[in-house]
Amino acid sequence: MNEKKYVITMLVENEPGVTARITGLFAGRGYNIETICGAPTADPELSRITITTVAAPAQFDQCMKQIQRLTNVIKLRDMTGEEAVKREMALICVNAEPEQRNLILERVEPYRGKIIDIGSKTLTMEVTGKENEIDELLVQLLPFGIVKLARSGVLALYREN
Predict the structure, then answer these.
(1) Same domain for 64 and 100?
(2) Which of 63, 91, 115, 122 is the 20 to 30 A CA-CA neighbour of 24?
């Protein structure tokens, strides 16, 4: 099957149960959600939900049509292309003996990461970037031992003219 990763974003009414209906649509049809992010917009009556999924093109088209039919969905867009600004945030806690900390900082710096907590034997950092950049940083940090990891999932907005 010729599956591809898709990023979709939707503007929805900020009401209880909207996210459950959308995720239920995915689950009921056997579609997997890789990441999902949702939060209110500048208008408190609206929320933006961004979903990353992997599907065959025909399956994805069917999914988009079904989401569009949901009453609380105001606007739906495929953000898969390059015309969108896409970012993800990660919090990463790594083992860090005092003598290793400078080496860890050298590996984090090119990714514009920021140390947000220093423990006696760990460092916790925050990094924001493209999904593949965060993946690359994680490979750089693996030798130290990743203790904990939390990723936001992809957020996307179309570029304005």
Answers:
(1) no
(2) 91
Half-sphere exposure of 19 (CA within 13 A, CB side): 15
Tokens of 49: 């939900």
Half-sphere exposure of 134 (CA within 13 A, CB side): 20
Rg (CA), the chain: 18
Block mean pLDDT (10 aa), the chain, length 161: 90 94 90 92 96 92 92 93 89 96 96 96 97 96 97 89 76
- Are residues 133 and 104 both part of a single domain? yes
- Alpha helices in the chain, H assignment, sequence order: 18-28, 57-68, 101-108, 131-141
pTM: 0.85
